[in-house]
Design goal:
Elements (H helix, E strand, L loop, with lengths): L2 H4 L19 E6 L5 E6 L12 H12 L5 H12 L9 H7 L8
Antiparallel strand pairs: 1-2
């Protein structure tokens, strides 16, 4: 991953500051060794105020980020709690769920 830093060129595109673009417009272009290119543009990041994530997308992202960090049963309970937090009688129970140890993701 660190080798990509030397191969990365970042620059500002002035036209992205103008409408119809958003302040979050980003374009990534990957140039392969054979000269072919793959390009992707994002006008509004997923999860931003103008493009909120659905509960299903939040759950999928949560599962991806927590996979292997804690037991699946614990993660499932935590996810259910968070997706229904407005219905919880004792929201402080969240603290109990977060107390248990987790794996070191940097190890």
């Amino acid at each position: 991953m660190w080798n990509l830093i030397d191969k990365t060129d970042v620059h500002k595109v002035a036209e992205y500051d103008q409408k119809p673009h958003t302040p979050y417009t980003t374009q990534v272009t990957i140039v392969f060794t054979d000269g072919s290119q793959q390009r992707q543009m994002v006008e509004t990041q997923t999860g931003g105020a103008g493009h909120p994530l659905s509960n299903e997308a939040i759950a999928a992202k949560f599962n991806t980020l927590t996979d292997g960090v804690a037991a699946r049963g614990r993660i499932g309970k935590l996810q259910d709690f968070l997706l229904n937090i407005e219905k919880q009688e004792k929201p402080v129970a969240l603290l109990d769920m977060l107390e248990a140890e987790v794996a070191n993701v940097l190890a």
